[in-house]
């Protein structure tokens, strides 16, 4: 059956893979692209014009570190002219006040700063960048001075899970509107570093209880989004809100992907914005249509009443763990491959909670 394709809502634009930090859970591919493979300014702008024509409402400007692109203000200005909401996702360690002012003048709508730890020593240890924490705090101050909304993104794993209360205190202290407690998702670099990063069950449960209590206490003061780790869940998360359903990703060299990790699925090939119109890629590309809708689903997903909730989970996780991207996500308790994640007694496992808007990953 042909699946009807609606307009996309959001784009995650990975403007570059260059980054001053070296986080062990980076969501960029294990094979990073060098600067000479990046799209030039005119091609990015032409691509965003096409995205606006497609009906895109918001673009997350990401990387790597997107502020390393000298043309970022031009890109923001183009999106702003077209009425597209822009969110800058930055590590903020190389940002200057002058550049942030230029982004603001160009029409930037929102800034998200990642903190690798809630304490200076943790931020430095995980990102491997000297004085990173102080630089981030300074950048957060500039964001507030310029009147931009601020989100703190906290990727959580074994090395910083004990700092979750400190992340909340930090977000309150710097006046953030929103805090993303985003447990690391295990594909790409994080999959390779799983043993070092995966927190134990008790630490995850303490975190869940704390976040639930604190979210209620801080209602109206701080919006806390929370993504639990799949490895302790009974059901998977609705990855990307469904494959090819609402959003797509553009890589630094112009490949258009249904999710940021899609190139890890080696059985798929992806089109580039330099070779095919964006609308045609979104509506017709084989890689997008392969897992759209429900026809591709195997049992137990096909007859499951949760298929409208999680869309069968994550294709990249299914491929990484089973070698078959069409398999039921092993995070699901009904998956025949669930044993690969079954590291805790089932009675104590938790359900995934994806509250608020999910970064086309964390
Ligand atoms: Fe989701 Fe498939 Fe599991 Fe049902 S069987 S909960 S659709 S992953
Ligand atoms: Fe690719 Fe989930 S990360 S579908």
Description:
Pathway: Cofactor biosynthesis; pyrroloquinoline quinone biosynthesis. Keywords: 4Fe-4S, Iron, Iron-sulfur, Metal-binding, Oxidoreductase, PQQ biosynthesis, S-adenosyl-L-methionine. By secondary structure, this protein is α/β, with parallel strands linked by helices. The protein is built from 13 helices and nine strands. Strand 3 (85-90), helix 3 (97-106) and strand 4 (110-114) form a beta-alpha-beta unit. Residues 344-362 have low confidence and may be disordered. Residues 235-236, 300-301, 304, 306-307, 310, 312-313, 328-329, 332, 334 line the site of iron/sulfur cluster.
* Content-based structural category: alpha/beta
Mean pLDDT: 90
Strand order of the largest sheet: 7-6-5-4-3-2-1-8-9
Helix content: 25-40%
Shape: globular
Radius of gyration: 20 Å
Tally of individual helices = 13
C-alpha end-to-end distance: 33 Å
> What ions, cofactors and ligands are bound?
iron/sulfur cluster, FE2/S2 (inorganic) cluster
Q: How is the main sheet built?
A: 9 strands, mixed
Order of helices and strands: EHEHEHEHHEHEHHHEEEHHHH
Number of strands: 9
Q: Which runs of at least 5 residues are low in confidence (pLDDT < 50)?
A: 344-362
Strand percentage lies at 5-15%
């Amino acid at each position: 059956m042909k699946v009807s394709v609606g307009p996309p809502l959001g784009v995650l634009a990975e403007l570059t893979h260059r980054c001053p930090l070296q986080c062990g859970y980076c969501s960029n591919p294990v094979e990073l692209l060098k600067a000479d493979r990046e799209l030039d300014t005119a091609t990015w702008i032409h691509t965003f014009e096409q995205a606006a024509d497609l009906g895109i409402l918001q673009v997350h400007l990401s990387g790597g570190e997107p502020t390393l692109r000298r043309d970022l203000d031009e890109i923001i200005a183009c999106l702003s002219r077209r009425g597209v909401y822009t969110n800058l996702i930055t590590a903020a360690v190389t940002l200057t006040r002058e550049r942030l002012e230029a982004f603001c003048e160009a029409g930037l709508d929102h800034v998200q700063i990642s903190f690798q730890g809630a304490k200076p020593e943790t931020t430095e240890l995980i990102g491997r960048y000297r004085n990173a924490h102080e630089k981030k705090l300074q950048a957060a101050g500039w964001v507030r001075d310029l009147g931009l909304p601020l989100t703190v993104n906290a990727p959580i794993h074994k090395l910083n899970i004990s700092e979750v209360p400190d992340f909340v205190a930090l977000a309150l202290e710097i006046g953030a509107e929103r805090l993303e407690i985003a447990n690391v998702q295990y594909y790409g670099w994080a999959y390779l570093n799983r043993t070092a990063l995966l927190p134990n069950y008790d630490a995850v449960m303490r975190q869940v209880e704390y976040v639930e209590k604190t979210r209620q206490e801080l209602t109206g003061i701080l919006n806390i989004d929370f993504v639990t780790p799949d490895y302790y869940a009974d059901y998977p998360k609705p990855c990307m809100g469904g494959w090819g359903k609402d959003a797509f990703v553009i890589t630094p060299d112009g490949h258009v992907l249904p999710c940021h990790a899609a190139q890890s699925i080696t059985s798929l090939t992806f089109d580039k914005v330099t070779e095919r119109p964006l609308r045609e890629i979104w509506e017709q590309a084989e890689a997008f249509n392969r897992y759209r809708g429900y026809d591709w689903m195997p049992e137990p997903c096909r007859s499951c009443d949760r298929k409208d909730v999680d869309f069968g989970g994550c294709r990249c996780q299914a491929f990484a763990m089973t070698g078959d991207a069409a398999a039921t996500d092993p995070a699901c308790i009904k998956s025949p491959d669930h044993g690969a994640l079954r590291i805790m007694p089932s009675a104590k496992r938790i359900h995934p909670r994806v509250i608020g808007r999910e970064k086309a990953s964390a």
